[in-house]
Design a protein that fits this description.
Elements: E1 14-18, E2 21-28, E3 34-44, E4 47-56, H1 57-69, H2 92-95, H3 97-100, E5 104-108, E6 113-118, E7 121-132
Antiparallel strand pairs: 1-4, 2-3, 4-7, 5-7, 6-7
């Protein structure tokens, strides 16, 4: 795990969060009877897409620097607070992956996507996947 924390900025302009699912298996008999087995009480493979529109180039560069520091999609990392909740006004528990699974770390699922929007301003899209250590 990397000691490098994910950059923290105000709430993202947009967020797409998929809470993942519980580890389970389904078996179907020839008769059609179905048996399901639950293999744990923690959700796995939550994904998070953060969009930061019109931030400064310096702020955008911090995300690119972080991506390089954690060796792209290789290392997992902690966040300051919970990026799933930043700017969310509903119940914090529903989006709080870290509270649901205390050992949650994040990992990039691909490189950040940077778009220059104006001189000195950029937008960046960051795709993360939750990893339980």
């Amino acid at each position: 795990m990397s000691a490098t924390l994910f950059p923290r900025y105000p709430a993202p302009s947009g967020r797409t969060y998929m809470p993942g699912d519980y580890a389970s298996a389904r078996y179907t008999a020839q008769s059609g009877a179905e048996v399901r087995i639950l293999y744990g009480n923690k959700r796995l493979s939550s994904t998070l897409q953060l969009v930061y529109n019109n931030i400064t180039d310096t702020e955008a560069e911090a995300f690119l620097t972080h991506y390089n520091l954690v060796k792209g999609t290789f290392e997992s990392f902690k966040t300051r607070g919970n990026p799933t909740e930043a700017g969310w006004t509903g119940s914090a528990g529903e989006l709080n992956t870290t509270a649901m699974v205390p050992d949650t770390r994040w990992r990039y699922s691909g490189p950040p996507q940077l778009q220059s929007t104006y001189v000195g301003r950029s937008s960046i899209v960051i795709d993360l996947v939750a990893v339980t250590i």
